[in-house]
Amino acid sequence: TRLKSLGFSLGLEDIDGFFGIKTEEAVKSFQQKRGLAVTGTIDSITWLEVVEAGYTLGSRTLYLKVPPFRGDDVKTLQHYLNSLGFDSGEVTGIFNKKTETAVRKFQNNMSLDEDGLVGSETIKSLNNLKRSLERGTNYHIPERKIIRQTKPIICIDPGHGLPADPGKIGVYGLTEAEVCWEIAENLIQEISKTELAGCITQKIGKNLNESERASVANSKKANVLISVHLNYCDNPFAEGSSCYYFSSGLSFSNSGKILSNLIEDNLIKRLRVPDCRVHVPDQYRLLA
């Protein structure tokens, strides 16, 4: 029902209560559109995205609360506010303090009750500015200045973690974590030979989750966070390189897009591996 309401075809059988081929195809189409891993299965990440995609601006009153509102309606709101010059930060789909501040500034500008509630009156005012809103397309995330800083900091994030999270084992007996860690150490050594500063998000024996590793990068005031991961495949002949940068529906990291393309170009050129292109999957959480 949710997939159909989002505009995805379920075939001639339509809603029949069975997870068949057409339903799987619809799930894959949804995952592709949302930048998720295209598996055709409803995992926790896909289900969360399906639920969030079902909200449209005006379907509920939005305001700051704990836990915060999440959904496509929040993404649309953030995009609208940013397009109109009211800085709500990254278009994350999470109604946070910065979003509320932007809402209050908009309400004040429009002579509305400055209560931070996104209800019918606030949405009506936003819709009245539809022409201005439609001129705004994708919103570039404001990012830290790198070039002018005395010594920019690049933080390397090795995937998995030794020894508790080794990842998969390769054909030569090495684990994903071992290879990622060696790559990360080599990158830090190369960075030290330049005018840049380097740091790493993990320590051997101290396994941090993704959120904790992002916090480490932030505490180091890193300008760039590069996560190193290996993909696993049952086919021993599978090979190639791919890079990812942050994108969330209506927003994307412009410098992240440029950097990931530069890295990918050099990887396929120097390592002579197939180009698996640059992607924007939502499940890769980068610098927070």
Core attributes:
3 domains, three-stranded parallel beta sheet, 8 strands, 10% strand, disordered C terminus, N-acetylmuramoyl-L-alanine amidase activity, hydrolase, PGBD-like_sf, N-acetylmuramoyl_amidase_3, MurNAc-LAA_cat
What does it look like?
With 288 residues, the chain is of the alpha/beta class. The protein has three domains: 2-53, no CATH class; 72-137, Muramoyl-pentapeptide Carboxypeptidase, domain 1; 153-279, 3-Layer(aba) Sandwich (Aminopeptidase). The chain is 39% helix and 10% strand. The chain has ten helices and eight strands. Strands 1-7-6 form a three-stranded mixed sheet. It has a three-stranded parallel sheet with strand order 3-2-4, sandwiched between helices. The longest helix is centred in the C-terminal third of the chain and has 18 residues, at 254-271. It is globular and about 65 Å long. The model is unreliable at 283-288 (pLDDT under 50).
Outline of this structure?
The chain is of the alpha/beta class.
SSE inventory with pairings:
Blueprint: H1 2-5, H2 21-34, H3 44-53, H4 72-83, H5 97-109, H6 120-128, H7 130-135, E1 139-140, E2 153-158, H8 176-192, E3 197-200, H9 210-219, E4 224-228, E5 241-244, E6 247-248, E7 251-252, H10 254-271, E8 275-279
Parallel strand pairs: 1-7, 2-3, 2-4, 5-8
Antiparallel strand pairs: 6-7
